[in-house]
Specification:
4% strand
């Protein structure tokens, strides 16, 4: 797909980008080349390729999902200005 200078101007307008008139041909060429690459990549047969979570196929190091702190909810609610049914009450800010 090849972009025209008018299409590049329209894209720049929609993206609210200021482009010099002298650079429009360069942008049109660069964007057209990117679109050609994306088309070429889309046509590649990837049926036999397994999806990877990471391009280096590395394992994610995860920590154990265990609680390391004690539950201090009662303490924090005892010093809160207003609490009702286990919930913190805050002043209304919107009507």
């Amino acid at each position: 797909m090849s972009l025209t200078t008018d299409e590049v101007k329209q894209i720049a307008h929609l993206a609210r980008l200021g482009i010099d008139e002298k650079d429009i041909d360069t942008y049109a060429s660069d964007l057209s080349n990117m679109l050609k690459l994306m088309t070429q990549m889309g046509e590649t047969n990837t049926d036999t390729i397994q999806p990877m979570a990471h391009p280096m196929d590395q394992a994610q190091r995860l920590r154990s999902d265990i609680t390391e702190e004690i539950n201090q909810r009662e303490h924090f609610q005892s010093i809160a200005p207003q609490v009702e049914a286990g919930l913190y009450l805050v002043p209304k800010v919107l009507d």
